[in-house]
Amino acid sequence: MEELIQHSREEYAKEIQDLAVDWLDYRAHVRLQARGYSTAGNLEVGDNMVELDFYLPFLLQVFGKKIRAVIQEKLEESLA
Question: Which domain holds residue 43?
């Protein structure tokens, strides 16, 4: 999971102004600021699952399904 986060920092370096990940065991609190929008949420890693619970700013909720699909695709690729 750390490799995926680091890869995302590098791949989206121009868009991400701030990305903080604070781990406690298998849970992380994530804070992100990108393109002027801020969000935060929690990430939990289990044996056979990754659960992501994030606040999506109101103006980005229109793109919620697309954002969710991209995140799911990246997670599946990195965990395969």
Answer: 2-79
pTM for the model: 0.74
Total of domains in the chain: 1
Sequential pLDDT tens for the chain (80 residues): 788 888 888 888 898 889 899 999 999 999 989 888 888 999 998 888 888 898 888 878 888 888 888 888 888 887 77
Distance between CA atoms of residues 46 and 44, nearest Å: 7
Which residue type sits at 2?
Answer: E
Please give the Cα distance from 58 to 28 (Å, whole number). 23
CATH number reported for the structural domain that contains residue 67 in this entry: 3.30.310
Q: Where are the alpha helices (DSSP H) in the chain?
A: 2-11, 64-79
Please return the burial class of 15, using the count of CB atoms within 10 Å of its CB with bins 0-12, 13-18 and 19+.
exposed
